[in-house]
Amino acid sequence: MTEITRDVVIIGAGAAGLTAANRLRTAGLSVAVLEARDRVGGRLWTDVIDGAMLELGGQWVSPDQDALKETIAELGLETFDRYREGDSVYVGPDGTASRFTGEMFPVSAETERVIDEITRRLDEMVAEIDPDRPYAHPKAAEWDTISWDAWLRQQTDDDEAVRNLAFATGSAMLTKPTHAFSLLQSLLMAASAGSYSHLVDADFILDKRVVGGLQQVPLLLAERLGDDVFLNQPVRTIEWSDAGVTAIADGMTVRARHAILAVAPVLYNRISFVPPLPRLQHQMHQHLSMGFVIKVHAVYDRPFWREAGLSGTAFSPYELSHEAYDNTNHGDERGTLVGFVSDRNADDLFRLSAAERRERILESLSHYYGPEAKNPVVYYESDWGSEEWTRGAYAASFDLGGLHRYGADLRTPVGPIRFACSDLAGAGYQHVDGAIRMGRLAAADIIEGGRS
């Protein structure tokens, strides 16, 4: 068993942990990053499947994600625009596919009016939310004890309007059924992107990609740390006191003055803390859970939908794949579609055989793009729910009532232990941008503490 001593031990080599480690090193502190997996990146993972480069995890960059954009620029990476020329497709409640351009999809004039009116109301509410302190809003308790679905259904009895308004934060972002989380949690999701309107605007939220894949961010950050990143080292025990921490992994022990736990909160219980974490943390972490989404990659010999004048952007709250986009790689002659199946639909699909699952998903994509969508040359499903060191996607969120009850304590250090990951972020919540922000925050806290 190797024993080393460092100023700070960081558990998790995702964007948050590696950002913190680089900041600490720059400030003159010694670090060790322990990663359970055999790779760095956490929920960022670019891999080659059957000859096709696929971004299995996070991949998009939005205009408001300053921390991520700064990091991309600093690392010398290039970005490119997501393909979006041509018509989008919407499938309505009767199964009819309609082409459209602009932000508003083809619904009746009355449904459009209802969606516009409720969107305006939501934007006003979101403008009052501080994404770092959503629990501080005067109506936090009221908004946190009604489900997102129930609140929307109080506003209107137009079911198509409700489904379309609900799925932006439900299926699409928190990847949980809309009755399972609160209005406040939904408002936080929107506030983290600047507004509800931003969140429902695919051209905003899914703006750019990194040439060669977003996992290059953690890969290059790790490269700078050299031998201070240790893979295949799941941390089993953390012994802590005011004097410091001892992190015991499978093959090594690190003694340090500080620790940063840079993994999703659903993984905290994989570590034995000695002494145990305070009861508040024990309770709080039980009220945080991952959503679940299958990210579907379908590669074709060419981007055939463009020939029909389609952008590749498609969505429907009535389809198995509730949204899909042109995900063709930079400079690639082949065409790639990416689709998403979330929450209950994802559960149900995993009760089927792999062949049945593929057939059902491709059938859903064909409702948007036509029969040619059923015949990809490469097909792959990113199943983060089965990943031992992730256990869901895209991030953890509170159950009904949990955010106003525990939100203020989410980032509170425990002795020498600090917490940092995208799941705890305000701006950039659930995104790489949020992970970088949290990594910076944890590092600054330690650096400033050392100077005081």
TrEMBL record:
The residues that hold substrate are F340
Query: What residues does the Amine oxidase domain cover?
Result: 16-447
The protein's Enzyme Commission number = 1.4.3.10
Please provide the record's keywords in A-Z order. Oxidoreductase
Q: Which cofactor(s) are needed, names only?
A: FAD
Would the keyword Magnesium turn up in this protein's UniProt record?
Answer: no
Q: Which Pfam families match?
A: Amino_oxidase (PF01593)
Stored SUPFAM superfamilies? FAD-linked reductases, C-terminal domain, FAD/NAD(P)-binding domain
One function term, GO molecular function aspect: putrescine oxidase activity
User: For FAD, which residues are the binding ones?
Assistant: E35, A36, V235
Q: Which family would the database say this protein is a member of?
A: Belongs to the flavin monoamine oxidase family.
Protein name from the UniProt record:
Putrescine oxidase
List the top taxonomic levels of the source. Bacteria, Bacillati, Actinomycetota, Actinomycetes, Micrococcales
